[in-house]
Design goal:
231 residues, alpha/beta, four-stranded antiparallel sheet, 9 strands, 31% helix, globular
Length: 231
């Protein structure tokens, strides 16, 4: 632990205090300061001027990152007949209504669950198991849909879901340290564009307060929030 503490302190010291960067400069610095002996995830944290306790100020949505997250996403598709075949052809890892029973027995070895509307009667009761783990499919997230092949393809291609937390922050992965600067930058741009478009009607005053990127073990690097304060 002491060695890790020294590495982090050295990395943090390399980030100029009180300085905010352009997005491409920020991801470059994050890559340069990554010191772990594994391929760290690069994450963006955005602090928003919203009150998540109010229904008209909830920020949530999805975005397809051009270069994915670098993580292999295991997709479960609960569908039958032609729709099951469609999901399978699109690359779903697990397909079929029989997985409802497996989940009831405690199986949750997947990252995203996609369901056709006709199967929600069976999937609905799984909310007590899937809900706390963030795995419950919803129409808003595009994971309850008849177009299940497209949904699976987008998730496999890098579609992520985001939601503001109780403190007004949104966290999301935008890749890994092994990604090129351009790949991280393009993923970051796509994510922040969606955050700006997702501004709720009830939000007043400054919407995007801070934007910070970091690797799993590294220090945060601030991005100039004024870039995202356009009307």
């Amino acid at each position: 632990m002491p060695k890790l503490g020294k590495r982090f302190a050295a990395a943090r010291a390399a980030v100029p205090a009180g300085v905010s960067f352009q997005p491409n400069e920020a991801v470059k610095l994050v890559k340069e300061l990554a010191f772990a002996n594994f391929d760290e995830t690069v994450e963006v944290a955005t602090r928003l001027g919203v009150d998540p306790r109010k229904a008209d100020q909830i920020v949530r949505g999805t975005v397809v990152l051009p270069h994915g997250t670098g993580k292999k996403v295991r997709v479960l598709a609960i569908a039958q007949g032609d729709k099951a075949k469609e999901a399978e052809d699109a690359g779903a890892d697990f397909v079929g209504p029989e997985y409802v029973e497996k989940i009831q027995g405690g199986w949750v070895d997947f990252d995203v669950c996609v369901v056709t509307p006709d199967m929600m009667g069976k999937v609905g009761p799984l909310g007590r198991i899937l809900g706390p783990r963030g795995l419950m499919p919803t129409p808003k997230a595009g994971t309850v849909t008849m177009d299940i092949g497209k949904a699976v393809s987008e998730i496999k291609a890098g579609k992520i879901e985001f939601r503001v937390d109780k403190t007004g922050n949104v966290h999301a992965p935008i890749g890994r340290v092994s990604f090129s600067e351009d790949q991280l930058h393009e993923n970051l741009v796509s994510f922040m564009d969606q955050i700006v478009r997702s501004k709720p009607s009830g939000a007043k005053g400054t919407y995007v307060k801070t934007v910070t990127v970091s690797s799993t073990m590294g220090p945060g690097v601030a991005i100039d929030p004024n870039l995202y304060r356009r009307a």
